[in-house]
Design a protein that fits this description.
Blueprint lengths: L20 H8 L4 E4 L7 H16 L6 E4 L12 H6 L5 E4 L23 H8 L2 H14 L1 E11 L1 E4 L14 E4 L3 H9 L3 E4 L2 H10 L4 E4 L1 H6 L9 E4 L4 E9 H5 L3 H27 L1 H6 L4 E4 L2 H10 L1 H11 L1 H16 L1
Parallel strand pairs: 1-2, 1-3, 6-7, 6-8, 9-11
Antiparallel strand pairs: 3-10, 4-10, 5-8, 5-9
Helix pairs in contact: 2-10, 4-14
Length: 342
């Protein structure tokens, strides 16, 4: 599928400098710019970061050398610390899911509200909206980073080791590992589950030992990490949340680059994001069949069941809409409503 755009920038943002570009680069550019990703290039998310780094290196003839650090290793595996580490100068480049940073900058998790996007058509329409793009990029800049583009982390599904999950009552008592988002914790609590916050590195042994019963992630992650081997026997494909994958540069770093290099890096981000979205969609198209082939019980929620899930999470939705930015969410909801009527 060809995408028309993924959150393009609003134009050049830096003034020209008096020194020749080569002299500027030699005087001010770092030998390496550190980029954090939660997962390695074996996953579409990590692959997006790899594509971006390679494009920047090639198009700047090595002037800008971005090195990828997967596993959130720059923050000891604690992905919820990435944005604060970027502000502290530990991380130069972000290729990550804003939901992980919502404890630091709550407004950046605006796209992750439960059951906000009914399908990919609505997600695409929102990402193509100039008004949504401007408002969201303004939030990123205000938080301290220069946004380039967004990819897609993928619709998140839930798995567990105990029993099939078809309706909200089936969640009662399940211990579920969630990413570092307070909102995800509230969703699980309202559904009757017991949320446990931990990094992905810590989650894997916890699942294997039975310390937690389940987890929520795109099925691409389930497949690539072979989560079935960690005792996960039941999967529900309910598409409850789909975050963006934000490509962004720490503002002090961005301001140190020439306008010409800023343009190159921005275009590389846009191109990498478009390629990364294509990877996510290809994996999404047949993920159920592949997970079932691993011997896992997969339930795909039907429209009636999805409505039950929406009703069960509406309190959390309303609360987080107010906290993450109601005006922007009003815009997003209006775009989604148009896609429903199309």
């Amino acid at each position: 599928m060809k995408r028309r755009s993924v959150f393009r920038a609003l134009g050049a943002t830096a003034a020209s400098v008096a020194l020749p570009r080569f002299a500027f680069a030699q005087a001010a550019y770092k030998a390496e710019y550190k980029m954090s990703t939660v997962v390695p290039p074996a996953f579409a998310w990590g692959r997006g970061g790899e594509i971006f780094a390679n494009l920047v290196r090639e198009r700047t003839a090595g002037r800008i050398n971005i090195k990828q650090y997967p596993g959130a290793s720059l923050v000891q595996g604690q992905q919820d610390r990435e944005f604060s580490a970027m502000r502290q100068g530990v991380i130069d480049v972000l290729c990550g899911a804003p939901i992980n940073w919502s404890g630091t900058v709550r407004e950046l998790g605006v796209f992750t509200l439960p059951f906000l996007f009914p399908d990919h058509a609505s997600w695409d329409a929102v990402m193509r909206s100039d008004a949504v793009q401007k408002d969201y990029f303004d939030l990123v800049r205000k938080a301290g980073a220069e946004p380039l583009a967004v990819g897609e982390t993928g619709f998140r599904q839930i798995s567990n080791s105990k029993h099939p999950v078809v309706k909200p009552a089936d969640m009662k008592g399940l211990k579920i590992r969630v990413a570092g988002s307070p909102m995800y914790g509230e969703i699980m609590t309202d559904l009757g589950a017991n949320p446990t916050f931990m990094s992905w590195a810590d989650a894997q042994p916890a699942l294997a030992s039975g310390a937690v019963d389940g987890q929520e992630n795109p099925l691409e992650v389930f497949l690539a990490a072979r989560i079935n081997a960690l005792g996960q026997k039941y999967v529900t494909k309910w598409n409850y949340s789909n975050d963006v994958l934000l490509f962004a540069i720490a503002q002090p770093i961005w301001k140190g680059w020439t306008p010409a290099d800023q343009k190159i890096v921005r275009e590389a981000g846009i191109d990498a994001a478009a390629q990364q979205v294509q990877l996510v969609r290809k994996l999404f198209a047949d993920d159920v069949e592949k997970v079932r082939a691993m011997g896992v019980d997969v339930h795909v929620s039907d429209p009636r069941e999805l409505e039950q899930w929406r009703l069960a999470t509406r309190r959390v939705y309303a609360r987080w809409k107010a906290q993450t930015g109601a005006p922007l969410l009003d815009r997003i909801e209006a775009v989604i409503e148009k896609t429903r009527k199309a």
